[in-house]
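Example for tutorial group B:
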């Protein structure tokens, strides 16, 4: 063998040994142990201004191209569950990082102890040493700059997906919060309750206009309806006690050049690909997001509504009380009437309207939930801001615009708004 060949083989063996040592040892960067990157250890210095529990990310991956990044913004009961399932499904894939935005005591706990989820579909944990946790979205974006050595987008634009799972009480803050993470190729999934898309897209457009730009600042915006029972028991401790499906649809597509729910095949395929590795999540694509939002409201309005109106009671007490069960059916019927009037106004066919099957589906789900505490009930008891505007009031306002009577729903919403005012839960 020639001297150059011997030296080349020796260099390759040393590189392999170094990577194997890095993967197995405590000092290896989190992304190497998590995502099995086998390129090289990051040589860029740690930026001490970043509040992150993770060590510097690897620069790139060999052979398979750029790192795929998913940002979970709002890692509470819903964000931690779905973000955790994405992490679980993708942890064995090279070049994939699932990064979590956590605040206050949630960050302090999770950065030291990780995230633990007890789930109806099987328990799982994200160890602290594998958790990519950040205090702010600016820190998340800056970590990408440090990882890649900077890019032409100034550090923004390296996220393939942003999954926003904040409550709708924070909707006004969302455009600014996610701005550091967005690029023209980023896709945004918003997991929130209520009729939020029209206002969110308008806010995102205004933010772009201030910079002299068109569009909303990303490739596509999706709305997600999570029909699950998930509560945060304490920082880093999630209890997922009932598993319904996750339904997602398109609110805006840059490729379809539309913000009224039109989409192209690549928009559908992108979100199917996102959740394909998360096998415990029963996922469904909604061709019509407006219909999907109303479908979820058929559960939220009666059951979250009655729970709060009654001062904060669990779902089992609603379905097992004859009077409250009857009231729930009344509100379901009114919600379906509003939904169908809204769908018809927006050009939907008769086949797309909600009917008896949705009515039965939501009551059957509720019969099997047990003593579930809706998030609005928890907020009422904890004296935290409640999701009233987008979850409840918007539906009644839409009914007024459409000329649909909804006396039972309107009464519930009046009770909820009174609780909100009385306890200053804004």
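The residue assignment follows.
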């Amino acid at each position: 063998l020639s001297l150059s060949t011997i030296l080349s083989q020796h260099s390759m063996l040393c590189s392999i040994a170094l990577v194997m040592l890095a993967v197995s040892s405590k000092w290896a960067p989190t992304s190497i142990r998590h995502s099995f990157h086998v390129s090289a250890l990051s040589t860029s210095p740690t930026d001490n201004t970043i509040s992150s529990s993770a060590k510097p990310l690897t620069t790139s991956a060999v052979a398979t191209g750029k790192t795929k990044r998913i940002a979970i913004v709002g890692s509470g009961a819903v964000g931690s569950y779905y973000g955790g399932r994405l992490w679980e499904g993708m942890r064995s894939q090279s070049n994939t990082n699932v990064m979590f935005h956590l605040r206050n005591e949630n960050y302090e706990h999770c950065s030291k102890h990780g995230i633990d989820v007890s789930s109806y579909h099987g328990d799982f944990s994200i160890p602290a040493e594998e958790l990519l946790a950040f205090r702010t979205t600016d820190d998340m974006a800056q970590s990408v700059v440090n990882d890649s050595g900077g890019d032409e987008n100034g550090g923004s634009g390296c996220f393939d997906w942003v999954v926003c799972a904040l409550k709708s009480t924070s909707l006004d803050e969302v455009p600014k919060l996610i701005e550091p993470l967005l690029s023209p190729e980023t896709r945004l999934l918003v997991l929130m309750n209520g009729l939020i898309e029209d206002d969110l897209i308008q806010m995102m457009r205004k933010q772009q206009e201030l910079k002299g730009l068109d569009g909303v600042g990303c490739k596509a915006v999706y709305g997600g309806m999570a029909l699950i029972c998930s509560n945060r028991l304490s920082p880093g401790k999630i209890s997922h006690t009932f598993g319904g499906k996750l339904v997602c649809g398109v609110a805006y597509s840059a490729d379809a050049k539309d913000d009224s729910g039109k989409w192209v095949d690549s928009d559908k395929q992108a979100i199917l690909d996102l959740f394909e590795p998360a096998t415990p999540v029963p996922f469904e694509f909604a061709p019509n997001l407006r219909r999907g939002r109303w479908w979820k409201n058929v559960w939220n309005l009666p059951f979250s509504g009655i729970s709060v109106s009654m001062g904060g009671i669990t779902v089992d007490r609603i379905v097992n009380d004859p009077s409250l069960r009857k009231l729930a059916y009344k509100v379901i019927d009114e919600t379906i009437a509003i939904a169908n009037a809204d769908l018809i106004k927006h050009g939907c066919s008769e086949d797309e309207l909600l009917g008896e099957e949705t009515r039965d589906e939501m009551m059957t789900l509720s019969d099997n939930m047990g003593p579930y505490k809706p998030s609005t009930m928890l907020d009422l008891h904890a004296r935290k801001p409640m999701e009233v505007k987008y979850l409840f009031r918007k539906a009644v306002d839409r009914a007024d615009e459409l000329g649909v009577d909804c006396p039972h729903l309107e009464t519930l919403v009046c009770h909820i708004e009174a609780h909100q005012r009385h306890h200053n839960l804004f």
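The longest strand covers residues 237-253. Compare this with the pattern of hydrophobic and polar residues in the output above.
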